[in-house]
Amino acid sequence: MIQSLLIANRGEIACRVIRTARELGIRTVAVYSDADADALHVREADEAVHIGPSAVRESYLVGEKIIAAAKQTGAEAIHPGYGFLSENAAFAQAVKDAGLIWVGPNPSSITAMGLKDAAKTLMAAAGVPVTPGYMGANQEPAFLAEEAAKIGYPVLIKAVAGGGGKGMRLVEAPADFVDALASCKREAASSFGNDHVLIEKYIASPRHIEVQVFGDSHGNVVHLFERDCSLQRRHQKVIEEAPAPGMDSATREALCAAAVRAARAVDYVGAGTIEFIADGSGKLSADRIWFMEMNTRLQVEHPVTEEITGVDLVEWQLRVASGEALPMSQEDLTIDGWAMEARLYAEDPAKGFLPSIGKLELLEFGEAEGGRIDTGVYQGAEVSPFYDPMIAKVIAWGEDREEARERLGEMLEDSAVWPVRTNASFLVKALQHPDFAAGKVDTGLIGRDGEAMAEAPRPSDEVLEAAANSLVPVRALPGFRLNAAPAQSAWFSLDGEKVEIALTGEGSEEPDDAVLVTEQGQAWLLTPWRRDGVHGGADGSGAILAPMPGKVIAVAVAEGQAVTKGQKLLTLEAMKMEHTLTAPFDGVVAELNAVTGAQIQVDALLARVEPTEA
Fold first, then answer.
1. Residue 297 designated active-site
2. Reported pTM
3. Domain 134-201 belongs in CATH node 2.60.40.10
4. DSSP string spanning 469-535?
5. Of 297, 343, 372, 421, which one is the catalytic site residue?
6. pLDDT band at 576 (very low <50, low <70, confident <90, very high)
């Protein structure tokens, strides 16, 4: 067994690996950037090494620094987690060349499955069904547009080196193809250093179903059943579950057998996931499920598989990397119950899911029987603008799907984070959606009904009244005022919004200046309304402010140009995603401060639109 392990990652996955390593008696080494100097994974590891500035390209993506840290600390092995360098064949080979153990598949397997076009060709040869599309080398926009027309709209443009929903665009009409292609290539080049794309047929009612596979160096390959990751927003997974709703035993057997064939085709060793797209317009069947891609690493959603199988997948990774055979055979593996996982993010759904950064002054996670929290932060930690804004993975197990769904909802509703905004209420509404509750979900559900899910939540009157009374002195309440009519309500500021709240006569002898209101997984700051206070910003000014720190990657207008409401003004890249800023109304670009390539801070004035005179 490996005795010392460096984790080439950060956040919750680094903490997750450290947890299992500690249980196995393995010494752990963390690496960290400037922004992560006081991060949870640094605190939990036995040793930590600083590897550079906050930007990932100067720290977590610099393989030489990570290998040097392993040698410096005497670590025998490197676990890459997911993301960053986890599917970088050159880095995997460099680790091996340095005499270290790579906790992952062979570099040749990563290479074989790393490019979506080559992987599909390989899978077709291995008898694994693939979706129709173009996967060739010709990247000329005109040629790709022709191929898209041959396939038939709608089509998906996908970065061949992509993953995690990045470098992917849905195109529903020929007129939109060129712009979507340019945006996809730009994002792919930024995220993966490779702007090549493939085109594939878009399935009208798609379900995303994936199979966990595991191989060892002794020729054994098993599957650990399937997960359903169909609930997505803009191709990024929101809630995952295992097993998949509506999966009968015959379809499961055929699907999982195809996944094992896929893994054997590349002599796979370690943890991997074979991702399939299924036609969800009717009953699941093997002839309507096609290979999409293989992820040659541990998945974000691996806990749901662990919860239904009782297997610690990180322990398996470490044992296989140490040269051991798989701990269990296929016949030993069974499904027990149901599990669901929700990704709790620091983002504001009511503001277009913009990332929310800052100090986690309050961080409380709900509890439930069969519940589990995988997190990389703690109360008092900072949510940084440099990395993925995940706060935690909230996981629930139940005897059946309904019990798992209810428990997950309870955990989310009982969580509280402040002042950073989260998507907790959005997740609860998604769990309560009638189609999701019935197991009738496809990847377009949030696209169709997500607007209502994203609406800003509001605390109940009962919770608000209790909080408001703690801010009011007893003498100011009904029945306690002299020479005045009894007060029935008072004005308060709820996160800057002026609200009137009923008073019950249960005021405080020592009233607080402010109180945090927590409900539905959200938190709000309630204060007495002060006429001279500043409670929120003005609307309709035409000022285009940066919603977060980031980089200007495209400017679509010029100063003095006439624009219409909703017209794209510029594009920012932040938190590894593109964000388009548009004109708030018809008018003229009176001021333009944005320059392509410039790094900007939150609330920076990027442009100003003056309304067109009537």
1. yes
2. 0.79
3. no
4. HTTSBGGGSTTS-SSSPPP-EEEEEETTEEEEEE--S--BSS--S-EEEEETTEEEEEEE--TTS--
5. 297
6. low
